[in-house]
Design a protein that fits this description.
Blueprint lengths: L15 E8 L6 E6 L4 H14 L13 E4 L21 E6 L8 H7 L7 H14 L2
Parallel strand pairs: 1-4
Antiparallel strand pairs: 1-2, 3-4
Length: 135
């Protein structure tokens, strides 16, 4: 008599994806496997934990609310934390710190050149010009 034994690979529904998350200012991307049904907020949390576990610099912390996740190949605005990661149809993402708005002095805000729009493509050229001009 044979008993039906379900396969272990038939876990949660959805496909598993190997995602690559690049943190601005870090040496290279972090790669890990996620379920395509996972929320963006969960992917950010996993990326921050993997980043810290690997001892990467700069130190980012663990507050997922302080970061934006972008999908540069699909769109230029930040992903909603409540979207599923598989809805983008991409596997490469960029993780950026949100601009600080609380407790910033007027001098700091004018020196950064950012308006807090959340568009990382607009921020990169400005940050490069600041670094180049300071030499």
């Amino acid at each position: 008599m044979l008993l039906y034994k379900p396969k272990k690979s038939q876990g949660p529904k959805g496909n598993r994806l190997l995602v690559s998350v690049t943190v601005l200012g870090s040496a290279g991307p972090i790669r890990f496997v996620v379920n395509e049904e996972e929320l963006v907020a969960d992917v950010v949390d996993t990326a921050l934990k993997a980043y810290a576990r690997e001892g990467r610099r700069p130190v980012l912390g663990s507050d997922i609310n302080g970061f934006f996740l972008y999908c540069p190949s699909v769109r230029s605005d930040a992903l909603s934390p409540w979207e599923t990661i598989g809805s983008q149809g991409a596997r490469k993402f960029v993780l950026c710190k949100k601009p600080r708005t609380e407790g910033m002095e007027g001098d700091e805000r004018s020196g950064s050149g950012r308006k807090g729009t959340g568009n990382w493509k607009a921020w990169i050229p400005k940050s490069l010009s600041i670094k180049i001009s300071s030499h």
